[in-house]
Amino acid sequence: MNFLKINNSLPLNNFMVFRIMSIFGVVLIKSTSVFAQLDDDIVITKDRKVELPPANRVFEKIPPIKQNPEDRQMKYSFFDRKLKGIEEVKFNPTVVSPDGGKKKEEQEKYNNYVSLGAGNFGRIFGELYVNSAQDSKMIFGVHAMHNSTSRGPVDDKNSANMYDKAELTGKYLAEKFQINGGLSYNRDQYYFYGYKRPRVEFDRKEIRQILNTLNFNVGFENIAPNPRVDYALKTNIRSLKDNYAAQETDWTTTFNAYFPIIEDKFIAVVDADANMAQRSDGEVDKRNLFRVEPSFKVNLNRFGASFGYKAVNEFDEVKKINRTKGYPTVELTYKFPSLIYVFAGYDGDIIRNTLGSFLTENPYLKPQTQLLNTEKLQEYYVGGKGDIVSGLSFNFRGSMGYYKNLYYFNNYAPKANEILADTAKFTVLYDSLKTQYLNVNVQLNYQPAQIWRTYLRTEINHYQRRAYEKPFHRPLLTVKWGNTLIVSDRLIANLDLAYIGKTFAKNPTTNALVTNKAIFDMNAEFDYLFGKQFTAFVKLNNILGKKYERYLYYPQQGLNFLVGVNFSF
Q1: Which helix (H) or strand (E) is 35 found in, with range?
Q2: The CA-based dihedral angle spanning residues 172, 175, 177, 179, taken in that order and rounded to the nearest 10 degrees
Q3: Kind and range of the H or E run holding 481
Q4: Residues 6 or more apart from 557 whose CB is under 8 A from it?
Q5: Pairing assessment for the beta strands 392-411 and 138-149 based on DSSP bridges
Q6: 81 pLDDT higher than 90
Q7: What is each CA distance from 191 to 124, 194, 211, 554, 557, in whole angstroms?
Q8: 86-87 and 2-3 strand pairing
Q9: Beta strand pairing status for 491-500 and 503-506?
Q10: Which of 559, 569, 562 is CA-nearest to residue 118?
């Protein structure tokens, strides 16, 4: 299963476009980490958290939004993500312009585009992005996408899928503040095709899943230079409905404030968030999580430190949970003259799990899935990032700690009176005992010349199991090697190879331990510029043709392709 993050906020043109290297950082299972899908950029020059919205749920590989070639500066980032399927390298349907030698101010810019494509498995793809003028105070964007297959890897239409999205975004820029807003609708349709085979005739409606997601967000942020108080307020409301009478409304609000006490040397910070969710999938359940973290940050040239205390209140109406816990936080940093940056710290938190976050990670969940938050009892971490030599940079992070209620996915054995007497759906298993974990992430990024960029990312995870003999469906090793190559002034190529180590599951009918084989995945992308605005692209996925199973009983498509055209305007 392949996933892709799409960023719709960047302006577009059809000149040389490089894919900004995947985030230079280590993917750490931390706090809002593996379980909340929030990305936290750590920028050296400003001690401030930047939280991004969760990635869109896209289960098949498609060409993403183009990126601005002016955005080539590499930014060191750490982000927390869940372990999902193989990610793909970002694909850009616009390559180098024949007039690439023109000065930047002489180049025409095309901020809008439309893409159309088709491929095997009956795939139809279409995408539209329309963006208002970038030099005005009011900026609006419209994004629409359709991606579907009429057949799948097994049993023809029983493993087909269709994903649609419509989104409106807007931004108002004033002299001292900015307002961002957005409204989006996603409709994801797919089937529970992981049933036992051969199977007698049945109505496809019995195995169909439809997720309807409506999302609204608005944010208010101070952008005044050298403000006495810096702040950001953001709120997001998501409404999720599925085909099995489940509904979840999730309202999240975050507030960040920065109070310089002694210029940039000593700063007081307040981070707070309020999360209120109501899930109706059988019994109505109200689940809230409130968090506030005051801290003080010290910057003494090369040395920096942060000391804080995190207070978290967790409430669950059905499970009769109402508790407040505190976690001290400490981080020490040091910047070498060579611009290498090292850090070490201690943290703890309660990590929020929702129906929406689980379905994003594994869409094949059974109805009335139990929801519990995961507690990160304590975490110790060290890391570093910087340039080794010209063109070669690194990012490293290692951590160890303890979780309670760490979750796993495993196939569910329905009861005799249930409609689907098979193992096509998954349940969530929680380790109620204290689980020790170790996470190591290393990424190397290399750009020897403008025509080639490459990176190698490795993640190692270890879990000391307590309640279960294996960490079901959690890979212990993932490796990815991505490359972008400018073949000529009209042709660009992308090649990525990925490896996901073997995972484990338990056969729900025999109770026997099952090993899912390791996954090797290879993908290639080519696009050719016929003119300033017209591009043709070819995308090859799973070139090795292996019907690997990221989740037990769910083989993925073999070799598949997408051919299409892109027009920028």
Answers
A1: helix 32-36
A2: 0
A3: strand 477-486
A4: 60, 121, 149, 152, 153, 541, 542, 547
A5: unpaired
A6: no
A7: 18, 9, 11, 11, 14
A8: parallel
A9: unpaired
A10: 562
| Tokens standing for residue 371 | 């929801």
Distance of CA 124 to the CA centre of its chain: 24
- Tokens, residue 144: 């629409």
Q: Which residue in 419, 410, 426, 420 sits closest to 363, CA to CA? A: 426
Torsion of CA 54, 56, 62, 68, to 10 degrees: -50
Q: Is the pLDDT of residue 528 over 50?
A: yes
The candidate with the shortest Cα–Cα distance to 509, out of 423, 426, 424, is: 423
The length of the chain is 569
Residue type, 67: Q
**Amino acid residing at 158:** N
Q: Which of 176, 230, 261 is nearest to 49 (CA)?
A: 230
In tens, the pLDDT along 218-255 reads 999 999 988 889 999 999 999 999 999 999 999 999 99
Burial class (CB within 10 angstroms; exposed 0-12, middle 13-18, buried 19+) of 144: middle
Distance of CA 20 to the CA centre of its chain: 16
pLDDT of residue 11: 36
Question: Is the peptide bond preceding residue 198 cis, with omega within 30 degrees of 0?
Answer: yes
HSE-CB at 2 with a 13 A cutoff on CA atoms is 25
In this prediction the pTM is 0.81
The residues near 210 (Cβ < 8 Å, ≥ 6 apart) are 187, 188, 189, 242, 243
CA–CA separation, 407 and 370 (whole Å):
11
The per-residue pLDDT for 198 is 75
For 159-195, letters b (16+ CB in 10 Å) and e give bbbebebebebebeeeeeebebebebebebbbbbbbb
- Per-residue tokens: 98: 């024949």
Give CB contacts under 8 A, 24+ apart, made by 316-322. 316/285, 316/286, 316/287, 317/285, 317/286, 317/287, 318/283, 318/284, 318/285, 319/285, 319/372
Does the structure show a pLDDT above 60 at 531? yes
Contact 561, 540 (CB under 8 A): yes
Closest CA to 441 of 426, 460, 462, 423: 460
pLDDT digits (tens, 9 = 90+) for 157-182: 999 999 999 999 999 999 999 999 99
Give one word for 386, left, alpha or beta, with left for phi > 0 and alpha for psi -120 to 50: left
CA gap 91, 496 in Å, rounded: 11
- Phi, psi values for residue 14, rounded to 5°: -115, 25
